[in-house]
Every structure is written in C-alpha cells, then in structure tokens.
Amino acid sequence: MKKAAFTENWTCNGTSVIVPHDAMIHEKRTADAAGGSAHGYFPGGIYTYEKKFFISAEWKEKYLAVEFEGVYKNAEVFLNGKKLYERPYGYVPFLVRLDENANYGEKNLLTVIADNSKLPNSRWYTGSGIYRPVNLYLSERTHISYQGVKITTLSCKPAKIRIEGKLEGIDSAKEYGVRMQIQDGETTIAEKFVKVNAAQSGNEKATAVAEIELPEARLWDEESPNLYLAKIILEEGEKILDTAEERFGIRKLSWSTKGFFVNGKATLLRGGCVHHDNGILGAASWEKSERRRVKIMKEAGFNAIRSSHNPASEAMLRACDELGMYVMDETFDTWYNRKNKYDYGCDFEAWWEADTTAMVERDYNHPSVILYSIGNEVAEPCEKKGLQVGSAMIECIHSHDHTRPVTCGTNLMVMGRAAKGQGIYQDGETNTTSSSKEQKKESNNSLAFNIMASFIGSGMNKGGNSKKVDAISSPFLDRLDIAGYNYGSGRYPLEGKAHPERIVFGSETFPQDIWKNWKMVKKYPYLIGDFMWTAWDYLGEAGIGAWSYTGGMPFNRPYPWLLGGAGVIDILGNPDASCRYAAVVWEKNSKPVIGVRPANHPGVRVSKSVWRGTNAIESWSWSGCEGNKTIVEVYGNGATVKLYLNNKLIGKKKLKQCKALFSVKYKSGSLCAIQYDAQGKEIGRSRLLSAEGEKRISVCPEEKQVKAGDIVYVDISVKGANGIVESAADEQLNCRVKGGVLLGFGSADPCTTEAYDTGKFKTYYGRAQAVVYAPETGTIRVEAEGEHSRGEAVIEVV
C-alpha cells in the first residue's frame, strides 16, 4: 500500500495544530489537578481533532485507510459523522478503513475524539490527543496487507532469511505473482518470484512465502547496525497491483544460562528505562526527537532501552534500528488490578490480546527489538487468575513471534506483599469526586510504593530474597523466557543455585548501584544486563528522583513540581555526572570524569531521593560562589586520582568502586583530575574550566540546515567569553522565532510555574532549549533575550 504522511491541516477543538500534537502540554497546571503529581499537575480533557480532505472520484474502487500511531486515550474515529472505530489504549497503532464510508469527488471530514478527561489514569505524564503521527494508506482492493510482511532471519552464516507476504482481496479465479527483492542501497542483491494460486486459499486472503540466501550479507548488531530494504511487489500478469517496502536487519537471537547472544556473540545489556514524553514538547513524538534521544544515549554508553511502561513509538524503533540500540518493548503498566481509578485496568481484560498483538506485529521487522515485556510490577501473578493471564500473554506473543524472548519487569517484593494481602499499589476504587481531600489522596497511586522505597532505600533490593517470596514468584518467573527483576539485585547471586535454568536481568535498578550491579553482570553468565531508572528524565511522578534544596519528602512533591528528576540525562538531553559514572563502570570512558555538586546552596541541607545517587554535574563555573564548600566527585578506572585546583594539589585518593570524593572550596579557574594505574603511571586526565569575561546569551542550533516540515533543536545558554556555560547565573529569557514555529521553549528545572509554550522561561544551571518547526523553505531566525544581553541564530530551511 502507498503510505503518505497525513499530519497537516488538523484542528484541535477548533484551533489549527501540527500533528503530532500533545494537547495536555498546553493546559494550565494547577495544584488541585485531579492527576496530581503523577501527571505533573496537568489537567486532562476531551479533545476533538478534525481534518477536511479531498477524496478523489478515481479512488472509488481503491482500498483507503488511515493509520494512527498513537492517540491518548479512548480514541473514537468518525468519517463524515459516522463512527468507524474506537481504541481505548493510547500507546498502540491502529488502522481505520475509510473507503466504505467515503464521499468520493468531494471533501470529507475526519474526526477523532480523544477523551483523557478522567484522571488519574496513569502513574506518569501521558499527554493527550493525537501525539504520534498519522498516515494515509491507498491501494488496489487486491493488495498486501497492512503490516503483512514478516522477515525472519533463519541463519547468519551463511545469511538466510524467510519472507512472508500476506495478501488481501484476491480473486479465487486468478493467479498472482509476488516478486521479492532485497536491496542494499540502490542495488538489488537478491530476488525471488513466488506464484500464488488464490483458489488454494479458499478465501480472499493468502500468504506468499520465500526463503532467500544472502551469502555476502552484513549482519545487524549494536556495533554494526546494517540495514537492508525488502521490496514486495504483488503482480497480476504484467500488472503491478501493490508494493510494500520494509527495512530490516539480519540478526539472530539466542539465550541460555550461559548468556544472551546476538548473532552468536555474547551481549551484555547496558540499559536505561525511558518514558515516552519528549520533555518541553510534551508527549508529541517527532522523528527528530526520538532519533536525537537514542543518539545521545548511545553516545553516553547505553546499548539498550526499556520502553517504560508501554509500547515505544515507531519513530524510536526506527532510530534504534539505524543507530544500533537494543529495545525491550513493554506492553502495560497494569493488568486487571488497577493502580489508578481510571487506568488501563478498566480495559485490560477486553483489550489486552488485541493491544499485545498490535505491538508485536508492529515490532516484528525491527531488529532493534530483542525483548518483549508483558508488564511492569504487576502483582496479579501471585494468584491463580493472574498466573493464567500471564501464561496467556506469553502464549499470545509466542504465537505471533517465536524469535524473541518474553519477559516482565517483576518486583518480587511487590508480588510477595500482595500475596499476603498487603498490596502496595492502590486499586483506585475510592470515589475521587466525594471530597478534595480524597481526591488529593488518590491523585498519585505510586505514593504507597514511593513512600516505602524512600524509607527502605537500597534495602528493597533484598525484598525478594526470602524463600516464601521465591515460592510465590517462581511459578510465574519460570514461565517467562527471561526473568526481569525490578530492584531485586539481592537475588542475582542466589539464582545460579536456586534456579539453575533461569536467565535473569535487572529490568529496573537504582543508577547509583551500577558498579555493584555491573560487577555481578560480568560475574554471572545467567545475568544478562541492567536497566537503570531512569536513563532520561521525564514529566510527571513529580520529584521522585530529585535532590531538593527546598526541603520536603523526596516523593509526591507538591505543585509546582513538574519533573520526575530521576533521569541521568535531563529533559534537554544533557547527561549528568551519574550518567558519566555509568560509562566509566561500563569501560566506555577511558578518561576520568569530574562531577561537581551545585556550589550555589551554601549551608543548605539537600533532601535526597533513593532514585538518585548524586546531583553532581560537569561544571566548575559557579559565579558568586567563591569560598563555598562543595563535593567534587571523580570517576575513573584507575587505581588512584589526584585533583588539582588552579594547578594546586587538593588531594590524592584511591578510586573505590571507580569513585573518589573530595571536599573543595569553590574558586574560579581550572579543576583538573589525573588518574594513575597501580604502578603510578598516568593513564588519563580531564579538566573543567570556569566561564570568564562578560556573560552573554548563546543561541546554537544543533543543525544549521533542515528540511521543510522538520524540526530543529536549539541550545540556548548563558556563556562566558570563553564559551563555557555559567551554572550559577540563571536568567529569565524571552525566545522569539521568525520564519518558523516555536513548538517549545524551556529548561530542565524540575520545579517551576513556567509553561513550555509561552516563549518565556528561566535557564536552569545556565541552560535552556527551544524546539522550532520549519514549515517551508527559506530562513528561520531564533532570538533569545535576557535582562543584559541577547543572542540569535539563523537556520536555513531547504
């Protein structure tokens, strides 16, 4: 089928919008919002999207459909006032056929209603509306099915693949041919022709199957993400009826207690959990945004992403395919027991099979997807019904895809407590409309878990160690191909003896535990990797991971807290010191890393979170902080490290667990760390500098040239004359765009009353960011102005 972007000329509640579009990010946040801290104090709503478009009279005998990659939530689709489709879940793609209800030769009205009015319905910020792309499909009535091409690697040496093409609308009186071509760039490197006799199928559907050898093929993995194009051509005699194209990589997975293997090579997963929002853009899923995130994570040392806790966007999967990032794609955060009053638990039993199938069929040809997860911290498997449901979900996935393992993010302590009638997550049965007090109580149903985690801290890692919890969880864990443990690292050393056939990994872990966890990953063959919470910061679950200088408990923080604060990469894409620490532990950074805890809060006690081991960043530029005490953290793989301030030795320390801490009084200039091996030989040095000279606003686009219809990220920061960002001289900025559309402007401040859609925002540790849409060819001018200076940049649109 011919596929075309269908994202222009939409309105939302009567206002013109650019799709993908998040309606929630434009709502006014309030302290009494029903979703509370979980949703970042954003309200929900009902959003009516409309698009008028012309349907040619020449299409009357064609197949016409529209694909929505994601609508949050309770989507209803109408054409010319007639309801055609509904889909409650907001994270899976769905196809709506239009041809049977179209008015040909005239304009038609496509209407989508997204109802996200009932909150809370999630434990994080969801966004609202048509937040993922929309596509239009057009073909002959006889065509290749939507998501009807499956490409399977049968062997790697020599490379051999199997291609299946599902056909629809075929005539039993006719014979068809399917030509399957494999292209490497512009060159066709293999081709096979398959005849399909429709009469043999007995209905209007059939499947063409071919096996193709590619002896010179290059394999796909994280280091060499080689991709090919499969072109499937449906023919009737000499007439071409339809064409489908699929990008794919040739790679084969295997797993055992000896490890996880990609193309026969042992692979350890250096993973990070990621929510679906894109920071200042809200939940809007732009191709550029998803690729940028994957690229930054790859450069930071990650090789795997866990899509938490819902299916990833198609754009993210494409980026992971192209850049070489492994993906653990996850279905749901809840099963039939709700964690919030209006969450997916309301729809689970009616929709889980269709939604799971939609994810697997969409993911099948993406080589980056190496694991399917059927849930996150669900307690249901401790009971008979839940075990039956979990087994059915595993069987469902295997029936559609036997090439990938199935797992689940299992919190052993949560399951053990639930089995004793001490469930941690509330089920949302309280009437939230009876009083404001009750409404506030239920606004964040992660609260009980977060309270417990905050007090127990890293002790939660041992919550699943008892024989009772092991007996409760094992019937479910043994049904999984690979067992995922959320905060269950205490089980790692035990499993080789207790469960010699079990393969495990850390599906969710504390970032500060990376040294201990990675040591075990390298030690135990059955332990295949670690996914920290979280790799990238996110909207909602306000303050769960933040270190705060304003006091309060480190969870369920009050308005105007907005961000989770748990990410080792902030919402703008800036890695912090703990992200660099992980890279050192993974041996992906040979030089020492210097992290500095903020020096601009002298004498103020910081309120810490269990989900963050430090709030240090890579900066030695804290104007106005001369003489303030701070902690300097140095990470390295050497034996010892020396720290120098302005060429004066501060001290020498052993690197324990790849880390050494120094107490230092801030003085502007140069901070230098030199690491040494056990023999005293220098093996690397790093340096941080202070901003010097007059501070000015810097506007720096990540690309000087973009295509019309694309977006561009623009770094806006406060810098000295030497180009160093100043961390302690934040300014209120106004951002203006000429020739383009400002989609979002903001900083990584986790607690603010400012909005991302006003063009006004204060920098945070000297940094802010703008995202600009380029509607047409020409030039775009981006200007940012503070109290004392301004900066600007020009972007060419081609």
UniProtKB/TrEMBL annotation:
Lineage, top-rank taxon, reads Bacteria
Q: Where is the Glycoside hydrolase family 2 immunoglobulin-like beta-sandwich domain?
A: 148-251
Enumerate the spans annotated as DUF4982 domain. Answer: 627-683
Keyword match Acetylation: no
Identify the Pfam families for this entry.
DUF4982 (PF16355), Glyco_hydro2_C5 (PF18565), Glyco_hydro_2 (PF00703), Glyco_hydro_2_C (PF02836)
Q: Which InterPro entries match?
A: Beta-gal/glucu_dom_sf (IPR036156), DUF4982 (IPR032311), Galactose-bd-like_sf (IPR008979), GH (IPR017853), GH2_Domain-Containing (IPR051913), Glyco_hydro2_dom5 (IPR040605), Glyco_hydro_2 (IPR006101), Glyco_hydro_2_cat (IPR006103)
> Which parts of the sequence are annotated with region: Disordered?
424-443
Which GO molecular-function terms appear in the entry? hydrolase activity, hydrolyzing O-glycosyl compounds
Any idea where the Glycoside hydrolase family 2 catalytic domain is?
258-411
Q: Which residues form the Glycoside hydrolase family domain?
A: 701-788
Q: Which GO terms describe its biological process?
A: carbohydrate metabolic process
SUPFAM superfamilies, from UniProt?
Answer: (Trans)glycosidases, beta-Galactosidase/glucuronidase domain, Galactose-binding domain-like
Task: Write the record's keywords in alphabetical order, separated by commas.
Answer: Glycosidase, Hydrolase
Q: Record's family?
A: Belongs to the glycosyl hydrolase 2 family.
Identify this protein by name: Glycoside hydrolase family 2 protein
Protein species of origin = Coprococcus comes
Q: What is the lineage of its organism?
A: Bacteria, Bacillati, Bacillota, Clostridia, Lachnospirales
